[in-house]
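Exercise 7 asks you to align residues with tokens for two separate proteins.
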Amino acid sequence: LMRIHKSIFSSRSDLKQLNTETQNYLINTMEPLLSLGMAYGLKYPVETVREIWRLMFENAAHDSIGACVSDTTNEDVYMRYKQVRDIASNLVELTLREIATRIGNPQSKEISLTFFNPLSTVQNGVVEVECYVPQKEFGILDEQGNEIAYTILEFVDQTEYVLNQGNILDLSKDIFIPNKVYKAKIALQLNDVPSVGYVQYTIDLHRNTLTELIEQKREILENEALQITINDNGSLDILDKKTATTYRNQTILEENGDDGHSFNYSPPRNDLKIQSIEFKPVIKVVNSAILEVATITYEMIVPKDLEERAEGIQSTRLPVTIVVKLAKGQSTIDFEVAIDNRWVDSHRLCALFDAGIASKVSTADQQFGLIQRPVVRRSEMDLWQSDQEKWNEKPLSIETCQSFVTLNDAQKGIAIFPKGVREYEIVGEKYDTIRLTLFRTYGYMGKENLVYRPGRASGESVVKTPNSQCHKQLKFSFSAYYYQGNVNSGEVANSAKIANTRPLVYEYADFLNSRLIFTQSEVQKDLFVSDSLFKTNGHLTLSVIKKAEERPGMIVRLYNGHVDDELDDTIMFEKTITKAKLVDLKEETIGALEVYSNTIKVPTQKHAKFVTVYVEF
């Protein structure tokens, strides 16, 4: 049997995280927004987008995407991700501004906030945005003049930075110049943001819709769907109110050694596992009417290196902070884990979620569909144990996913949405616990005779990779979704897509024409306060919205995100369709599509199948 390198998914976790974040940004954010701009007459930056994907494809080369290369090569990989991020974010900002400034808003005040929804279904919920405001208390109004609650998370005076750099093109225009300017990070409640569209809210400086964060004495987070109790050891007990099920001992962090290298994780022959619950955390809980936040801080003490681990010595600090966020009305909990990893070598950190559901298979998504994998490969493991010399690698059940992994029965389930390293393993005596890898570190490109992979080294054993120890501040985000029914009725695939596709916001005010946003001339206000390009019923899961490669129209791709079910869908456009075709992945026509009242009925798709539609307006 060949070597599979099942744990290469977590090699250079920092670069894997960049890959996940960058792919999500390009596919879920940039391309739908540029497509929306194209529908409003903006030029789609074809060559720039091709350059972005060329850089991503260079990073997708076999060893580059695996990170099983030298530190020097990994530096090149990082630089390409940085270039992609910089180019893409500037394209997004430019397009956001070109649309937002064309909106004719009769409610327009001194400051507007335009929210863009890149998804094919209407979106609601609490989002976090950064904006510049002249005071702490103000009102946010939706397009109908209704008050929108907001909460301030961060608030910093940047008056001199902003106002000393102002540029005014039209000196005859009477513009609002505030006395003070604060950079604020706020959370606010969005209501019915149109699909593949936008809505413009306004800031009214004479009203006040602030709901403040207040520190709580009880260590509980709660909304309409969930109640989270923070235990004294920092683990979470989570009550799903809809099924009256309590999931105990959630989000335990587990640290252990990594005697592997750039191709493989492998435990040391003398390992020492350490869990966060062995330490006394500092817990702080704050809440407002729309958001509840817990900060759990540990000072974990772990072995400095593999030598100390083998001797059972715990001498070195590993400070860890877990931020838990529960928004109003949501069944998804957002987590941010920050680790100061400057002093520890060759180890791994994972997060454990006990589903309490004894499982034979896990369900995860792959390209264009779902896959169920055995939680343990029993026959292969028995053969491994009986004669390891005949195997090139232990038949591990460490697996990967695109955007989620879940354990469920017919009544309930837990899904984890990794937003960095997309590696998991189902563990526990009953195989009832999802173990999500956050990061792992090592010091060599290759090593010989690993516990999980005997024999020759897979990489160059003389090439040291000290940067792979990731001696720096690390931060990883992921979400946990607690749902009712099975993976189909719980709409796990669509929920993962939403979790990885946050609405965009663009703030406009004349006083921001400075080094914050480049100065532009006035444009014609020819767009509505709220608009949508198209919507679907949400049966199929959205894959991409983009311009066609060789034709002037737009590509919309959807896939079946259920297990076994056959699904269809309907795409309802707000613009007049002049052409509609069924195309393949090469975007070559494979069939005609009938259009009724600018609506397309999408053909039924079986399990793990997808459909690609080409349209012109």
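Second protein for Exercise 7:
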Amino acid sequence: MTAQQKFKVFCITCSILALVQLVLLISRGHTYSHNLQVYLGLGIGMSICGSLLTFNMCIQYCSPFISIQIFILKYAFYWMLWLMKRKHFNAFQKSNEDCTKAQTEFLLRTIRTHKDTEYGKDFNLKDITTVEDFIKTHPLTTYNHYRSYIKRVAKGEQGIMFHQKPSVLGKTSGTTGLAKVFPVTEEYMKAITRKGNAITSTLRNRAGIPDPGPLQMTCSLLAHGAIGFSEGGTPVGSVTRFMMSDAMREILFCTPSLGSSIVHEPTSMYIHALFALRDEDLGSIWAPFASSLFIFFRFLEVSWNMLVQDIRNGSISDKLKALSSRDREELNRFLYPMPMRAYEIERQFRKGFDNIVRRLWPRMPVLYGVTSGSMQPFVSRLKKYCGDLKILSGFYISTEGLIGYACEFPDDGQTKYVCAASGIFCEFIPAAYCDDENPGTLLMDEVRVGESYELVITNTDGLYRYRMGDVVLITGFFNTTPIFQFQYRNGELLSLCAEKTSEIAVTKALNETAEKWDDVGIAHYVCAESPLYDEARGANDDLSTDILYYVIFVELSAAKDTKLASDITEHMKFEAEFDANLKTFSESYDRCREKSKLGPPRVIFLDQYAFSNFRGLLLETSSASAAQLKIPKKLRKLKWVQLFLNHKIKITVADDNHNDEEKDRPKSNEDLV
């Protein structure tokens, strides 16, 4: 008997008890003393309340796999969040009525709190009494500015950047191959898990988008891995790893905690898929980025036979080689044979994968995952699986701070965010001046709709006038507070898995590789990500494209008929060497390759006309003059990729043989499992 069925029995019992007490009170109440009449009345009231409460719990969609304890905790958590919504959203609206006032109060409160820290003394924060003083006296900063302070915090020293001990040292993936570490306080963590969730949920509801039901579970596609510790004993890792406790994950997520600790992505995806498929009433699927959602559904497409068999048998197949026997045994404790569910899943899979989400999980209202920026190309590809189901970003967040709350959810995935006026102090550098050494900044009430700006933030955790590198487009205002869309990151080139492989790393890797061929130099190059590349070559429905990868279009400075460009053996050597060098220059790329998040890169050599024709196309389709035009290093449009494919140098050995090379690459995540 499931937890919900047990509560149905409890509901019926309460109803019967209330009815019995009511009959007694009506028929024989006059024969009882006053005290007994009061007790009967209270009993009736309590029984009716219990009956109504349990009735409400019993009519909700509910996972059949949760215990009574989780059942009660989930229901209580849902209504606790509901109560918090009003409080936090009222404060949010008040801050938006006068964002200048909210920004000033936040900044001066933060400065007063931190003026006696080591950093505050070094930069005379006690002398700053206005926003103008702050902008005039404190320089714009980058990560190098804080290195020595962060090292001291990591060693366990207190009173360096703030007074309390940090909850975690949040580790970023890095934009140039080296990860950054920022101290994160309990205040910031609460801002995300409490205020952030309450405000974004209310904004979604006001846009007509429902939340999952109070008793539905979520499939979280996170794979956390092991936790590190600093010299001073502070946990080190991604902020998302520490946003909630294991106990809270048990309440919210369908996959057991062990499943989220598996680092090998194909294996982790398999475990998440297995536990998600069991639950017909699953409420949502959550991933940090839309790319993970895409990988998940492509994974279902190539692995469904094995998943169906495991659900039918109630145990994980030995074919999942990367899963240790101990972990398999532990996860099998949560499984039991489900032949009827296996039959229904198999029936839906055999119909194809169009709109598969609604057919597998008919009561799922939304999916969650960041869709803007480099994730935007995945939105159209996810339509095959999701149909018209919304894919939602929650808030604009980074290790450095919670910048904004999602407030508009267009179908193209370019989510719009309203700035968190009372939670972080923002300045804006006009995009035209981003490369200046010491550019001027604008405040929230000075930005203009239609203009792009680099974000500069001051947070509660010791960062002041910090240049994030994120470039955003102002699209409107929420009362007086700016609404923005993310555009790109300065210096970032590739980021399919949010690893932020930089232009610097790619350039170094290409040049290092080319040096091994005496007659070769790199004249020009541009990059593309596999979803757009696959679409350009008509491979959208080809399951061999399951693994994400990068494509580098290269024009060599040597003659176009060089052996490297035309001979498949030399070509493959160059690709392998480039892959190895890119791993050296980008630690985050290396981690993604090691974890099978990314497949080997493709290098495509171009004739001498490719870039001149591309330049001509850009001049024809933009308002830029020839003197202003800069060739983008990343191809973001389908027709751009198609243009370069038309200039591909034909390999001496027939292209069919080049395609045979694909046999040596992993065809899908199934091969890696």
